[in-house]
Structure formats: C-alpha cells, structure tokens
Amino acid sequence: KQEVTQIPAALSVPEGENLVLNCSFTDSAIYNLQWFRQDPGKGLTSLLLIQSSQREQTSGRLNASLDKSSGRSTLYIAASQPGDSATYLCAVPPTGGSARQLTFGSGTQLTVLP
Amino acid sequence: GAVVSQHPSWVICKSGTSVKIECRSLDFQATTMFWYRQFPKQSLMLMATSNEGSKATYEQGVEKDKFLINHASLTLSTLTVTSAHPEDSSFYICSARDPSTGISSPLHFGNGTRLTVT
Fold it and tell me: Which of B17, B31, B33, B60 is an S-S bond match for B50, by CB 3.0 to 4.6 Å?
C-alpha cells in the first residue's frame, strides 16, 4: 500500500527566504507526482506535476524535483512571500490503483511572515 | 484550463436530513470523478470513484448506503450524504482529469464543500 509522508508538518519563515518542502513515498512504481496548494477552507490548486521519467519541473518561483529510486520529492520555493502561506500537499497514484487516483501526504502548513 | 466546479461551497443541515453535493466539469467531459473527504488538520482521503453510467467504486470503510453517488452525465457527479449525523461533518472535495490530456495529466479539484451537521 502506497504511503506518503511530508516533512515538516509546519514551517514558519520570514519573507524573502528560500525554503524546501519534503515528500517521501514508499512505492516507487509511480506514474507521476503532483504538488498542490490548499488555502484554508478551499479546494486544491495544482502547482506542479512531475512525470516518472522527469527529474524536475519548474514554474515561476517553484521548483519540484523527483527521485523515484529513493522515493523522494522536494518542492523548492524561492524568495518566499506572505501570499505563499498555505498548506502544500504532495500526492502520487496508489500502489495497484488507477493512475487517475491519488494518495496524499498529510501536508506541510507554510506560514511566511511579512 | 480545465475547471471543476463544486456546489454548494458550504452547507449546514440538521441531523437526520440528507444533503446533495454537485461536482461539474465545466470544459471537459469526465467519465470518472473522485470524491475525497478531509477532516480538520488532516489530508484528503479518497472515498469513492464515480463512474459515468455505472456504479461507483467505494473505498474500504466507506458506507455505500450513506454516501450515494450518481454520475448520470459526463459532466456531473453528485454525492448525497443520507441521514447525516454530526460525525459526517467534514470537507468534501471532488476531482476529475480531462481524459483528452492523457493518463498522466494533472488531476483538477473543485473548491470543496464544507458540511456541518448540527
């Protein structure tokens, strides 16, 4: 059974800092890995999707890496801003499940202080 | 880009009543939609997979008779919480993938429905 772990559970940084969020998964046989952002009381916004054949994806100040063999992914946020404050979730398809389903980590709650 | 719309965004109901939540794909046809539940401070847990024109597939531990799913068209899936109780209070989120973009394309999520049962 696929299990996804995110560390740290919460993170507070001053504005302008670069930061890294970590995600690990137990079954490396994944189609892809997706990072989401969730604001309080809201749904999920897809940030980045990395295919299993890729090592990283970039979008603006965000960079996500994937190391399938070690079962790890990182989300790097450069020059953090208060508007980046949210919960960040990583997700992968579950073992034996459809590639359309996702197993989520418990998330990292990020607070960027002005 | 692909958009998934969910309605209502929040609902308060009395214990014993039923509540229907709608999930629509606005600019693509979704033969499959997914329903998740999220308790406070916890991550999303898949409840069921909604299949257009056939029965939904429920995850282990999810009561089929309590959480009725109907996927009558390619753009609409509904989740009905029947005889709701306070412990059903949660955040329910639906998702879908645009099948025209391939099996490894991103999953799109609705904005969720906050259900409070009093």
Answer: B33
- Using the Cβ of B91 and the Cβ atoms of chain A, whether some distance falls under 8 Å is answered with yes
pLDDT digits (tens, 9 = 90+) for B68-114: 999 989 999 999 999 999 999 999 999 988 877 766 667 889 999 99
For residues A75 and B3, the model is more confident at A75
What burial letters (b/e) apply to A1-18, b meaning 16+ CB within 10 Å?
ebebebeeeebebeeeee
Structural Rg of chain A based on CA atoms:
13
Which tens digit of pLDDT belongs to each residue from B97-109?
Answer: 887 776 666 788 9
Residue A111 and residue A81: Cα distance in Å, rounded?
9
Selected residues 58-87 of chain A with any CB under 8 Å from a CB in chain B:
none
Which residues on adjacent β-strands are paired with residue A113?
A14
